[in-house]
Design brief:
With 295 residues, the protein is mainly α. The protein is built from twelve helices and no strands. Helix content is 78%, strand content 0%. It has one domain.
Length: 295
C-alpha cells in the first residue's frame, strides 16, 4: 500500500475508534472490553501472519520493538478505556490530538530530528492553551471527567514516547510482525489489569458492544496498527503523528451525531487552539517566510 493510502486509512480508522471504544464498553467492564479487543486482535494477527507467510523475527532488536510498543500500547489503551467512562468519544480524540506536539518534542530531545524554532515553540504553546481550555470544559462535567482527562493525557504521553522509542530502535521487522509482537507483549498485561480490576465474565454482551469490539479488533488493533507501524518505518515520527490533525474534528462530529454527545464551547475552542498549534508547529516556518521583512 502506498504511504498516502495508508495515511488516509489510519485517519478514517482513528476517527471512528473513540466512538467504538465508548460503544464497546457499554454494558461490560472497560477492562474486559479492551482485553477482548486485544485477544481477538492477537488471534487475527497470528492467522494473517501464517496465511501471508510473513516472517516473525526473534532477534534482539525485534524483541526490543515488541516490548516497547506492547508496553506503550497497554498504557495508552488501558487508560483510554478507563477514561471512556467519564469523557465523550470526541474528547478522547481531542486529547490524542496533542500527540504530534508531544511526539515532536520527544523527537527533538531524543532523536535530534528537528530544532526548536520559534514557530514550533508557538505551536506547542498554542497546544498547551488548547489543553487548558479542554480541561476547563471538563470542569462542568464533574470530578470524573477531570480524572478521565488526566488519564488520557498520560495515555497520549505513553503513545508518543513509544512512537519515538520505536524510531530510535530502528527495527526492520514487517509491520504485521511488529503488530503481533506488540499484542503478544501487551495481552498478558491486559489480562492482569482485567483480573485485578474486575475478574468476572459478563453475563451477557450487548450486540452493539460486541460489534464495536469486533470492529476495533479487526480495524483498530490489526489493520490500523499494521499501517501505523508501516508509516513509522517510512516517515518521520513527527509526520506520522500529524494524523491527529484531522481526527479530533471528525471524532467530535461523529460523537455528536451518532452518540448524541454534548460538545461544550470550551472543548471546541480548545480543539481549535490545538489544531492551530499543530499547523503552526508543522508549517509555521513556511508561513513566516512569506511575511514581508523590514529593511
Amino acid at each position: 500500500m502506498s504511504l498516502p493510502a495508508a495515511f488516509v486509512s489510519v485517519i478514517m480508522i482513528w476517527s471512528t475508534t473513540p466512538l467504538a471504544i465508548k460503544w464497546s464498553s457499554s454494558g461490560v467492564a472497560p477492562s474486559f472490553a479492551v482485553l477482548s479487543r486485544m485477544a481477538i486482535g492477537t488471534l487475527l494477527c497470528g492467522v494473517l501472519l501464517v496465511l501471508l507467510r510473513e516472517r516473525f523475527p526473534l532477534h534482539r532488536r525485534a524483541w526490543q520493538a515488541y516490548l516497547v510498543s506492547g508496553v506503550s500500547m497497554f498504557g495508552a489503551m488501558a487508560l483510554t478505556y478507563w477514561s471512556a467512562q467519564f469523557v465523550s468519544s470526541g474528547m478522547i480524540s481531542v486529547m490524542f490530538g496533542l500527540s504530534p506536539l508531544l511526539t515532536s518534542f520527544a523527537a527533538m530531545w531524543w532523536l535530534k530530528e528537528e530544532a526548536l524554532t520559534p514557530a514550533k515553540l508557538a505551536g506547542m504553546l498554542l497546544g498547551i492553551a488548547g489543553l487548558a481550555l479542554v480541561f476547563q470544559g471538563g470542569l462542568g462535567l464533574g470530578d470524573g471527567a477531570l480524572l478521565g482527562l488526566a488519564a488520557l493525557l498520560i495515555a497520549v504521553t505513553s503513545q508518543s514516547l513509544g512512537l519515538v522509542w520505536l524510531k530510535k530502535i530502528g527495527d526492520d521487522s514487517p509491520p504485521l510482525a511488529t503488530t503481533l509482537g506488540s499484542l503478544i507483549v501487551g495481552l498478558p498485561l491486559f489480562f492482569i489489569a482485567w483480573w485485578l480490576a474486575d475478574g468476572h465474565l459478563p453475563a451477557a454482551i450487548p450486540e452493539r458492544a460486541l460489534a464495536a469490539t469486533l470492529y476495533l479488533a479487526t480495524f483498530g488493533s490489526v489493520l490500523g496498527f499494521v499501517l501505523y507501524y508501516y508509516m513509522i518505518k517510512h516517515m518521520e515520527a513527527g509526520h506520522v503523528a500529524l494524523i491527529a490533525l484531522i481526527t479530533p474534528v471528525m471524532a467530535l462530529l461523529l460523537g455528536h451525531g451518532l452518540n448524541h454527545e454534548e460538545v461544550l464551547l470550551h472543548v471546541w475552542l480548545g480543539t481549535a487552539f490545538i489544531l492551530l498549534g499543530l499547523c503552526m508547529h508543522r508549517w509555521g516556518a513556511q508561513w513566516l517566510a512569506y511575511l514581508p521583512v523590514r529593511r
